[in-house]
Design goal:
By secondary structure, the protein is an all-alpha fold. It has twelve helices and two strands, in the order ααααααββαααααα.
Length: about 210
C-alpha cells in the first residue's frame, strides 16, 4: 500500500496503545474498546483489527477467533513483561504476533489452517511499526519475535519448520520462549506446568 502522511489522530492512537501495553495489568480491556474507534478500522490499524472474525481451529483454539486469542496473549504477556529484556519490544510482539493470520487463514480438507502466518506476520508487523516509528532496532526485534513466535512449539515437537540458525542469529531464545509461553497460555484450558517444562526443553535444545 502506498504510504501517506500519518495524521495526529493516528499518532495519538499509536501512543495510547503503547501506553496501555506497557502500563495495564490487562491491556485487553482497553483493546476491546478500540473495536468502536473509526481509525482502528483503517490502515494501518486495520492490520490488527482484521484479527476480529479471523477463524481459528476450534481444536487448537477453543477461545475463538484470532482477536480473542490475541487479547489473551497480550494479558499473559503483561503478567510476565518484567522478565523480558525489553518490555516495549515484547509487548508489541505480543500484540502483533498473529497479524499474519487474516491473510493466510484457509480451510484445507475441512480444517482451519494458517500456514506461514509467522513469516507473513513478521512482514506486516514491520510494515505497521515503520508507519509510526523509525527506530530500526525496535522494529527489527519486534518483527523477528513475530517471525519466530511459533518456534517453542516447532522445536519441542521437532517439526520440520524449525529455523534454528535464523532464530539464533536474529533474536534471543529467552524472548522467543517467553513469547511462546504467552502464545500457548492464550488458549483456553492450558497446562501451565507443561508449557513451562516445554520452555526449559526449548532453551536446552537451542543452547546445545
Amino acid at each position: 500500500m502506498e504510504m501517506r502522511q500519518k495524521s495526529s489522530e493516528e499518532n495519538r492512537l499509536f501512543q495510547e496503545i503503547e501506553k496501555h501495553l506497557l502500563e495495564d495489568e490487562e491491556p485487553s480491556r482497553y483493546l476491546e474498546q478500540l473495536l468502536q474507534v473509526k481509525e482502528f478500522k483503517e490502515y494501518p490499524f486495520e492490520l490488527i483489527y482484521k484479527l476480529k472474525g479471523t477463524e481459528q481451529s476450534p481444536t487448537h483454539h477453543p477461545e475463538g477467533d484470532a482477536w480473542n486469542h490475541m487479547l489473551l496473549v497480550v494479558d499473559n504477556a503483561a503478567k510476565v513483561k518484567k522478565s523480558s529484556k525489553n518490555p516495549l519490544v515484547f509487548m508489541w510482539a505480543a500484540l502483533l504476533h498473529d497479524v499474519g493470520k487474516p491473510s493466510t487463514t484457509k480451510i484445507r480438507k475441512g480444517k482451519v489452517t494458517a500456514y506461514d502466518h509467522d513469516k507473513e506476520g513478521a512482514k506486516l508487523a514491520r510494515e505497521f511499526l515503520c508507519y509510526f516509528i523509525d527506530k530500526e532496532d525496535v522494529i527489527n526485534e519486534v518483527a523477528n519475535l513475530v517471525r519466530y513466535h511459533m518456534h517453542l512449539l516447532f522445536v519441542v515437537k521437532n517439526l520440520p519448520f524449525v529455523d534454528k540458525k535464523g532464530l539464533l542469529k536474529k533474536t534471543d531464545i529467552n524472548e522467543v520462549a517467553l513469547l511462546g509461553y504467552c502464545d500457548r497460555m492464550g488458549r483456553k484450558n492450558q497446562d501451565k506446568q507443561k508449557i513451562q517444562a516445554d520452555m526449559k526443553q526449548f532453551i536446552k535444545i537451542m543452547t546445545k
